[in-house]
Here is the input.
Amino acid sequence: MRYDLVIFDNDGVLVDSEPLSNRLLAGYLTELGHPTSYEDSIRDYMGSAMHRVHDLVEERTGRRLPDDFDDVFHARVFAAFERELKPVAGAADVLETLAADGVPYCVASSGSHERIRVGHRATGLDRWFDDERIFSSQDVGRGKPAPDLFLYAAERMGVAPARCVVVEDSPLGVQAAVAAGMDVYGFASMTPAEKLAGATRLFTDPRELPDLWVE
Here is the structure.
């Protein structure tokens, strides 16, 4: 194993939530008078913390989103998770391999702690993640593309950044990992490979990962 810690992004890497959440986000923004397509949401917000949604809308329109925007949006997302959310194919296999081999791993997500846990419970991935393995942008001052979240996760897990590898599917996440001084493997599934150009390696099936990080 080339690394002492594997840090997973959550949405789009462990749980197949990006299509659901971006469809709902685009619809809600449009409902509030900020016309947004699904493609716009993927381009502008995929992999980011909620503050980026607020910041970009205000920057572009001069209008602030409602105070209850996050609560309403998350309620819609969590309801959709309970109905429809699935794990990313192969994600559980990778977690099982890491656990069996005794390799430390964790999740570091732009989503809230509640969002992470709801998604893990809905998909059965909660068995792999106790509280000590879950880190959220809520834990730091700045979300991705700032490196703060990944650096915080590494510090809490007791591993130097240079000995970490991040598994990401968004350009913002790749930028954050590079800024943290970590290798990053880009999941080129929903995201075109060219948009993950800063990644150390690219892959299209999580089951490829065990072979990649022992090469």
